Fold each of these.
Amino acid sequence: MHKIDYDAYLDEGNLDNFSTKRIERKTRRLSQREKRLRREAELMEHATRLPADLQPRFNTTFRPAMSERVWLLSYLEVFYNAQIITDVLGKVKGGKEANVYCCTAHPSTGLELIAAKVYRPRMFRSLRNDARYRQGRVLKDEDGKTTRGRREALAMAQHTRFGEVLRHTSWLEAEFETMQLLYEAGADVPKPLVHSNDVILMEYVGAEDAAAATLNEVTLEASEARQIFDRLVDNLAIMLACHRVHADFSAYNILYFEGQFKIIDFPQAVDPRRNPETADLFVRDVERLCQYFARYHIHQDAHELADALWGRFLKANVLDADAVPLELEIGVRV
Ligand SMILES: Nc1ncnc2c1ncn2[C@@H]1O[C@H](COP(=O)(O)OP(=O)(O)OP(=O)(O)O)[C@@H](O)[C@H]1O
Ligand SMILES: [Mg+2]
């Protein structure tokens, strides 16, 4: 099936009236917000002039703005053609890096709804300052192949177009792989279904007309709070056993729906065997957890808890000499 990659099409500067380099030059002295608005305006203007054969055949109930439509439908079309989704019902939330949409699932999937986390085109995304989380990561290129060369590392450091592609795809790949690993290990994460270079499809949490709230938006019953706290601690242990630390664990990244919760948003997750900052990131995660639950009179010392969990993890890994690098054992704070 013919697939239109608008992002690449526009990035290559294929059209005379749309060159990212030209816009870069013009907007160098503008603020980030002004730059973003100008770029969106340029793309919107361009989108209205797209040739008819570049219009996706995938029509949706959700009517995105023209600038969003250009990339959204082209990114999702492949899943429509593969009979995984049949419609996009609405946008659940727009974040800094990605938007999440509620889609209807194709009957063959056995699901009713699917959440699509669609990473915005590179030019519209403000990637988190990710150097801290990338240490020791396996890089993937656009075709999903593992790359380890110096050329790739240099390209990323120099922010060349190739380097940005690598950053973009490996960020998303890392999120999908972590979700898969954790889901299979029994952690409370939405079931990951499939991904492309720009999109992750996963189990949708919530109802058609109301997506799940995040934990910071709800008030829990006292008994429920205790249960959820305990189960979240279990989840931290499961993650450690899978060699993963979330690294952005907070009430904003925990969905709550009908008494159940799911942890989301994993692109920055780190591997303690490879990233020497993992212990610090883990303590920060545990601190946030304890701070949130203090409002429900659950007073757990974060450092004690982190110490206990991390200690258990180290003990389990002592048997496997390669599992935890020595410097991590020495450098560990807890
Ligand atoms: N599986 C899901 N089911 C329902 N809603 C979801 C799902 N995954 C994410 N969402 C919604 O989308 C929002 C953004 O998701 P996520 O945190 O993964 O993306 P993000 O780009 O990192 O966003 P942010 O910058 O706000 O953290 C969540 O806060 C939640 O409201
Ligand atoms: Mg988030």
Amino acid sequence: MSQPLLEATGISHSFDYLLFSDIHFSIAAKQCIAIVGRSGSGKSTLLHIFSTFLQPDHGKVTLFGHDLYTLGDNEIESLRRYDVGIIFQFHYLFKGMSALENIDVATTLSGEDIDYDILKKLKIDHLMAHKTSELSGGEQQRVSIARVLSKKPRIIFADEPTGNLDNETAELVMDVLAAYTREHDAALVLVTHDESISARCDMLYRLENKVLERQR
Ligand SMILES: Nc1ncnc2c1ncn2[C@@H]1O[C@H](COP(=O)(O)OP(=O)(O)OP(=O)(O)O)[C@@H](O)[C@H]1O
Ligand SMILES: [Mg+2]
């Protein structure tokens, strides 16, 4: 197997109480791995730890060969800008801007061009002139996914990316994410409650009883 893009070893974290401990995880290019688990088990927290946003109490995260939480602010900023794509559980689009302007902000920051092919595949190309506030929840979700993919990240962390979507649109989003990872040698770590979505991933992990266990 190729060198992992992300490798996490011995990860533990607590907020008010111990959330999870001794977690081991790795993902290589072109892989898609799903993480499932009950609400409150710590899935989003784990994604934040994997994706530069939260230093764990214990353990090491190696991202693209860098010992992540030893990096300085500039290096972390650069990873976020160019290499790490995060599709949050709740999307954060700029409300006053049009869909196109929202995507343009991300591509300008990362030095990429807007990928109109992705907009078309996500069936949002006709919505680009609309203000965010004029779009449905599922349309906003797809704009935020397009925004993340347009910057051409090497690894994508997606926290329930299809949570607001009907089955057909959820499958469409998965098609786009899977095609992206194949075509760009990227990796996808996906949190989902949807079994038909997790079934499409190469591996499945469950976060339960404070540990992350591989299911298949
Ligand atoms: N910044 C924080 N400060 C304190 N507690 C937090 C913080 N972030 C999360 N928690 C707590 O940690 C626990 C796990 O939260 P997390 O969001 O990781 O769960 P989750 O598995 O993603 O749940 P869901 O499926 O509902 O999204 C929750 O009890 C939450 O209240
Ligand atoms: Mg969550």
